[in-house]
């Protein structure tokens, strides 16, 4: 998912603080001249309220007052990149992975359904899914996902048995590649432990494994290699409420893809830094520079809806507001933040 908002660099034509008729009329006139000569981004502005007498002059001339601009310092909103690749919290890992690979990026913001930032997802997070730090014990076999998402991620061509639910649940994967006796012992041990109803049994065209999975009351049977179970197995699964998914992939590929059926929300952390669009760069630059975070979401004030993102390198030479100063030439009388803007001309 890409979010695109285009925001041009601001160019304000403005007079001194506490503007009088000269300051406001000069801003309007010079901005109009600049636009007429090709500088279409020039906007008349003011850094103070319009005096009552000047309002009358503008009304009689049929002119709108210049926009009020009280601070021209670069902000998070002015330096961030507005074209953003983002994922939703309910997207699967596979969807996020493909998006990041397609765009050649290492981190993306994660949004809820309202477009608000919930966290950040890094490529390393996805790598740890496939290469967990601990490779022994049951943890490596656990899969927290919905059977519906597993089927969608695998591109399952057919559902047999009960309908796969959309709710996420904790499943224990077991590949049925051993002998009939060994598989039976493993399922019997699961029954004695009381976790047989959480087992996701994965195998290819092995009818005896299909039957064992149903006899021991496994949560679901995942048949690989494009095979379909016998009709007797399908009928028995429907009676017992056991889900059967038919994967077109071989067993090894099926296991890898099933792991990618988890939702992004399960791995993101709320421990991240986001900046409001009106926060001033000079005030947060040190905090950002010392943060281990590499991507910084910029959000709308008060809503946390994503506006854009920036990285630390964007702080090296942030874009500055362009200023044409009219009716004065003293920074002490100019708009706040003039020393952090780019003064194009002084008239």
The Rg value, from CA coordinates, equals 31 Å
The tally of structural domains comes to 3
Structural class: alpha/beta
CATH first level of the largest domain: Alpha Beta
What CATH calls the topology of the largest domain is Udp-n-acetylmuramoylalanyl-d-glutamate--2,6- Diaminopimelate Ligase, Chain: A, domain 1
- The run of helices and strands is EEHEHEHEEHEEHEHEEHEHEHEHEHEEEE
- In percent terms, what proportion of residues is strand? 15-25%
Shape descriptor: elongated
Q: Would you identify the regions where 5 or more consecutive residues have pLDDT less than 50?
A: 2-7
- The CATH level-2 architecture of the largest domain is identified as 3-Layer(aba) Sandwich
Which strands sit side by side, in order, in the main sheet?
9-11-12-13-14-10
Q: What percent of residues adopt helix (DSSP H or I)?
A: 25-40%
Termini distance?
Answer: 46 Å
Number of helices: 11
Mean pLDDT: 90
CATH superfamily of the largest domain, please? Answer: HprK N-terminal domain-like
Number of strands: 19
The major sheet is characterized as: 6 strands, mixed
Describe the overall structure:
By secondary structure, the chain is α/β, with parallel strands linked by helices. Helix content is 31%, strand content 22%. It folds into three domains: 2-74 and 319-346, inorganic pyrophosphatase (n-terminal core) (Alpha-Beta Complex); 78-91 and 93-126 and 266-315, CBS-domain (Roll), CATH 3.10.580; 147-260, 3-Layer(aba) Sandwich (Udp-n-acetylmuramoylalanyl-d-glutamate--2,6- Diaminopimelate Ligase, Chain: A, domain 1), CATH 3.40.1390. It has helices at residues 21-36, 52-61, 76-79, 93-103, 123-130, 147-154, 180-193, 207-215, 231-240, 251-259, 281-289, and strands spanning 2-4, 11-14, 42-46, 67-68, 83-85, 87-88, 107-111, 117-122, 142-145, 158-161, 169-175, 199-203, 220-223, 243-246, 275-276, 296-299, 306-310, 322-325, 342-346. The strands form five sheets. It has a six-stranded mixed sheet with strand order 9-11-12-13-14-10, sandwiched between helices. Strand 12 (199-203), helix 8 and strand 13 form a beta-alpha-beta unit. It is elongated and about 95 Å long. The chain starts with a strand and ends with a strand.
